[in-house]
Amino acid sequence: MIRLRARAPAKVNLVLRVGPARADGYHDIESLMVPLDLADEVEVAVSPGRAGAVRCRCPGRPDLDGPSNLAARAALALRRRLGVEDAVDIVVQKAIPVTAGLGGGSSDAAAVLRCLARAWRVSDRRAVADAALEVGSDVPFFLGKGAAWARGRGERLRPAAAPRLHLVLLYPRAPALAVRASDAYRWLDEARSGRALPDRGRPRADRPENDLMEACLERLPALRDLPRWIGDLGGAVPIMSGSGPTFFGSFRDRTAARAAAEALAGRQAGGEGVEAIVARTVARMPGVSPWKSARSASSRSTRKSSRPT
């Protein structure tokens, strides 16, 4: 059995511009995406030559178990393209909030693709890239090397020099404030109906913006407290990440970010608590490494100790 492990980092969108809806239902975007040190842990076990199912589980989150998880869908998509039937077992230890605009599910999917590409010694990068885009528009970014400008659906990537930032991510736990990406884009289309898009010039890394934010705030006004709280504590230009509902702001250093997160603890939005997470932007995506389960390590230890001396 081949066992591999990868960290699956969260991301924030420092810039997210959204064009009109395309004929295929997607939108062209222009976005500066930056990975964070906040990450899930993904473990992949492959049984070469043994046909079997793709199984996926998330300890502590049974609602995320099964074939609908993006991590499982990524494995199935790559297996189909390569004509492979090897059994695949995936375990995702979640640290990134779910449905938060931070790319956790897409990053998990990319981590699985990285692991499987290594396990199966895949040289066809196009097969991996196509599997990534099939699963989700953000997945190709997480297959890259680091911060990038994303265009098209998100598959056209250009490396970017992103600033090193100390952030506080503020995520509302209330189910009533959850935002599906499809809803956020639909709300934006409805808000823009009949209006021409202004010419805003080229987007810049030092000018955070998110076209989806105002449409989401109009539909979910309880979210308006989040950027205000961050700004009141010194967070620079607090904006929403992706399709939300997480907001983030930049602080001068880690100490200031931690102090702000502590001050935000216990606050509520939509009738439930908010989660304040301190995170830092990182220059590169993490790699893939071998791993050994506790059971296999214990078995080896037992075997070694039972040898005659």
Short key terms for the protein model shown above:
32% strand; 309 residues; single chain; 5-stranded antiparallel sheet; Alpha-Beta Plaits; 13 strands; Ribosomal Protein S5, domain 2; alpha+beta; globular; 8-stranded mixed sheet; 9 helices
Task: Describe the protein's architecture and organization.
- This protein has about 300 residues and is α+β, with helices and mostly antiparallel strands.
- It folds into 2 domains: about 1-160, Ribosomal Protein S5, domain 2; about 165-280, 2-Layer Sandwich (Alpha-Beta Plaits), CATH 3.30.70.890.
- About 30% of the residues lie in helices and about 30% in strands.
- The strands form 2 sheets. Strands 1, 2, 3, 4, 5, 6, 8 and 13 form an 8-stranded mixed β-sheet that branches. A 5-stranded antiparallel β-sheet has the order 9-10-7-12-11, covered by helices on one side.
- Strand 1 (about 1-20) and strand 2 (about 25-50) form a beta hairpin.
- The protein is globular and about 55 Å long.
- The relative contact order is 0.18.
